[in-house]
């Protein structure tokens, strides 16, 4: 697995304002300390629905929620088998949640600093004072002789808090045995302690408006840079100009800076026919709100025709981007304008390929289009704070735990997202399930092709990224 920062880590925390700051200095003039997060490092705000979800995962497991009322939380997606998110609060990672596709459940992975916020009632192991130094300093396992008490619900493989006799948290780890067996043991390891760096965690309440204020200068600076970039590119390419709009946050932020730099421009929307209703609604909302014309391609038929011929798109055979986005866009540009300049919400923090992409380019499939990325260097956090500052109408799917806007059945989605869509959007999912079943019958494929979602990947080829078209 490639583990690499796709840019500088901008995420810092102001302990006076209790907010994330995307630089070393908060607007309050206090210096902000860097928050150590796992690469690639494209952290984003947690919405109330994200916090409810995290709290329910922690409550089920430990008997109490992780996140207290009124605190700002930042999420950071971490490369994992399916889906894993680091949870930042009080200026440090207090834990994570990870989806286990085989068991169809989320698992909490707390850090010791989580014990500052929560007082776990379940999955707790109490150790004797003599055992504490080696556990704390050397991440030694909890051994049977050092065990004072173990809570009833602890099973082998469970995440547990290791606490002293007064209930203060010393470490976290994974149980190597269940509670009943542990009590009968007089030797051997009971918990494998997880090695975690010491972290400063300073809780305190704040709002996202506070965070916007704290980042005022930083946001003005990145905005200014983007505006200058847009004006320069337009000067160099005096052709019809538009903003590529997908209904996602990155294209919304791109639109906002473009409005500032160049005034109203038409929106270019590639309608794959596979968008969520909420996305169509957002495209209309944004167009109305800013009084912009929407030029759209309609490619639903192309998708289903190709699906019948080639089978469903897969991460290593993503024909959908070419068939549903690039080619129809090319055709539309050629008929409407001959050629054009499009501002696109591509960001380097999205992927390794995008990190290496130039800021102005022509896609090999769409040579009549000059693409330019004003927010190439922004993190998701810059994007969100900017959207909050502008009070722009963003897609409500973000508030419903869907953080990647696009075709609902994108093969690049994680399984956690699919499970969520099946549950929350059963009718929408049924259209896809029916299509998969029809293809399966016709080609005599086994049931697991659908059950285990084998359609998502065909071979061992690397992810196909022709679709660098946000
Ligand atoms: Zn501050």
What is this entry, summarized?
This protein has 470 residues and is of the alpha+beta class.
Walk me through this protein's architecture.
The protein is an alpha+beta fold and about 475 residues long. The longest helix has 21 residues, at about 215-235. The strands form 4 sheets. It has a 6-stranded mixed β-sheet with strand order 10-14-13-12-9-11. It has a 6-stranded mixed β-sheet with strand order 17-16-15-18-20-19. Strands 4-5-6-7-8 form a 5-stranded antiparallel β-sheet. The model is unreliable at about 465-470 (pLDDT under 50). Helices cover about 35% and strands about 20% of the residues. It folds into 3 domains: about 1-110, Nuclear Transport Factor 2, Chain: A (Roll); about 110-200, Archaeosine Trna-guanine Transglycosylase, Chain: A, domain 4, CATH 2.30.130.10; about 215-415, 3-Layer(aba) Sandwich (Rossmann fold). Bound molecules: zinc ion (ZN). The site of zinc ion has 7 residues, from loops. Zinc ion (ZN) binds near residues 14, 16, 28 and 214.
């Amino acid at each position: 697995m490639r583990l690499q920062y796709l840019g500088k880590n901008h995420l810092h925390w102001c302990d006076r304002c209790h907010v994330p700051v995307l630089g070393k200095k908060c607007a309050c003039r206090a210096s902000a300390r860097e928050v150590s997060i796992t690469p690639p490092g494209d952290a984003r705000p947690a919405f109330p629905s994200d916090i409810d979800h995290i709290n329910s995962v922690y409550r089920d497991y430990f008997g109490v929620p992780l996140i207290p009322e009124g605190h700002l939380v930042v999420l950071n997606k971490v490369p994992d088998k399916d889906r894993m998110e680091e949870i930042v609060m009080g200026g440090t990672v207090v834990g994570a949640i990870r989806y286990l596709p085989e068991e169809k459940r989320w698992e909490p992975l707390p850090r010791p600093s989580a014990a500052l916020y929560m007082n776990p009632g379940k999955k707790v192991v109490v150790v004797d004072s003599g055992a504490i130094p080696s556990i704390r300093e050397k991440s030694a396992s909890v051994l049977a002789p050092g065990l004072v008490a173990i809570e009833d619900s602890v099973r082998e493989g469970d995440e547990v808090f290791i606490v002293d006799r007064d209930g203060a948290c010393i470490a976290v780890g994974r149980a190597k045995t269940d509670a009943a067996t542990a009590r009968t043991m007089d030797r051997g390891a009971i918990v494998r302690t997880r090695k975690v760096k010491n972290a400063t965690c300073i809780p305190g309440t704040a709002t996202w408006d506070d965070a916007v204020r704290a980042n005022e200068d930083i946001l003005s600076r990145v905005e200014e840079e983007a505006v200058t970039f847009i004006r320069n590119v337009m000067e160099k390419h005096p052709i019809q100009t538009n903003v590529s709009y997908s209904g996602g946050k990155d294209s919304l932020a791109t639109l906002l800076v473009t409005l500032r730099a160049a005034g109203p421009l038409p929106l270019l929307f590639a309608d794959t026919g596979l968008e969520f209703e909420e996305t169509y609604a957002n495209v209309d909302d944004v167009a109305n709100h800013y009084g912009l014309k929407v030029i759209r391609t309609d490619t639903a038929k192309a998708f289903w025709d190709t699906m019948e011929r080639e089978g469903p798109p897969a991460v290593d055979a993503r024909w959908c981007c070419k068939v549903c986005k690039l080619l129809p866009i090319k055709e539309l540009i050629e008929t409407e304008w001959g050629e054009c300049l499009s501002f696109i919400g591509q960001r380097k923090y999205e992927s390794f390929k995008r990190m290496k992409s130039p800021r102005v380019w022509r896609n090999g499939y769409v040579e009549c289009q000059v693409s330019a990325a004003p927010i190439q260097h922004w993190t998701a956090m810059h994007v969100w704070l900017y959207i909050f500052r502008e009070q722009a109408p963003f897609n409500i799917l973000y508030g419903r735990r869907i953080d990647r806007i696009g075709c609902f059945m994108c093969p690049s989605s994680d399984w956690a997202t699919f499970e969520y869509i099946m549950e929350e959007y059963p009718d929408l999912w049924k259209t896809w399930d029916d299509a998969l079943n029809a293809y399966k019958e016709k080609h005599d494929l086994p049931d697991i092709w659908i059950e285990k979602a084998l359609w998502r990947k065909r071979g061992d080829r690397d992810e196909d990224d022709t679709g660098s078209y946000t």
